[in-house]
TrEMBL record:
Keywords: Antibiotic resistance, ATP-binding, Nucleotide-binding, Transport
Protein name, entry field: ABC transporter ATP-binding protein
Segments of this protein annotated with the region Disordered: 45-65
GO MF: ATP binding; ATP hydrolysis activity
Organism this protein belongs to: Streptomyces hoynatensis
Amino acid sequence: MPVFSLGLPWAPPAAPGPGGPRPAAPCGFPDFRGSGCAAPRASACAPPGISPRAPRRSRAPGHVGYVTRCPRARGRRVGSGAVASSIARAEPATAAPRRAPAQAALSVRGLVKSYPARRAPRRRGRATAAGARPVLANDGISLEVARGEIFGLLGPNGAGKSTLVRQLTGLLRPDAGGITLLGHDLVRHPRRAPRLLAYLGQESTALDELTVALAAETTARLRGLDTAAARRERDAVLEELGLTALAGRPLKKLSGGQRRLACVAAALAGRRQVLVLDEPTTGMDPVARRAVWAAIDRRRAQEGTTVLLVTHNVIEAETVLDRVAVLDAGRVIACDTPGGLKATVGSEVRVELVWRGEPPRDVPDIEAARRLASIAGRRWTLRLPPDLARALVSTVTQGPAFAALDDFTLATPSLEDVYLALGGRGDGLVRA
Ligand SMILES: Nc1ncnc2c1ncn2[C@@H]1O[C@H](COP(=O)(O)OP(=O)(O)OP(=O)(O)O)[C@@H](O)[C@H]1O
């Protein structure tokens, strides 16, 4: 029985050959998790014109930027039907990287960090580490961030983002590798970091006893401003982030989103050439989030501030970042502009179907779509070439399928699609 009916182009897989799926021979391009293709893993990311150490493009035909997964593998993800074949046939589009200034603010080379194995509970008076293994949180990360760039680290929980930024801020010592920030060697001189950058960590309870105003003013004073200048800075940043009405409230008496916003205000108070912000907008409503993005963008535009932003919010990544490194299991699996990364998933379209109840599985196209979909409750998500997406939309907007359908969306690829195409786990990313 054909996978799809209705005479739609959802036909059985095409035979290998000219125009068919790519041959299975190793392509020499590093594959995600090091499997499939024979070449060694790559974990480097440099803006155009910065570093000859890490070439920006693979010379292998059909490979783009720093996507460190063979595009062939995309066919595997969606199964072995016609959709998989046609996706595998499509040549990946060539990314058009945005030109970045040639001077690096931050250079990270081959950074490795592992955490020791946790000891298992004592048994008969003896502690044992049997079964527990060290966690390799950063596995040879290389990055170049240009001055004035807003650079993102995107990845799900546990990808190694915070471990990386804690090393960049001098709070954690790498096992191996080098970090140069604004010309300073931070592995040899970690105490220089606070003078060079402002860091907003994930947990920031240190300011809880202070009022919003005092938190911002104190930070500005600690960064070397005199009292009058620190107060001007305080007032400006509270105004900029819409916090003026909360100025007199202690952080511990604010909501989670308000407290996070106050911590952002403190991080921005007093000038630093580099901002390292670890998930700054977590818990914020859309208004607060936009205020933070605008404040970051303003500093880059007016002061040439370099920003390293950790996020697992794909919308945030697409909205504010100049370039983004996608991390998974401690490695950079892709790095480019958001547009360049999205170009690597070609012309695929994301179709989301939300069902009211049980989808009509006796409709052959619906049953075929179910096999290709990633299913979360009543939501089916499919990534399809445009013609198949159109055909599916036509099926679900009539007859019994339409009666069972609650909602559908058709969207161009997002960074989440890139991440999934690279083999990442989609459940760790946020779309809000
Ligand atoms: N202090 C620690 N001791 C042992 N393992 C740790 C420690 N901190 C982090 N890890 C482990 O290192 C890995 C990377 O963690 P990290 O916090 O860097 O990830 P992340 O990408 O920042 O995740 P999240 O988005 O949840 O903040 C994870 O497997 C985590 O469990």
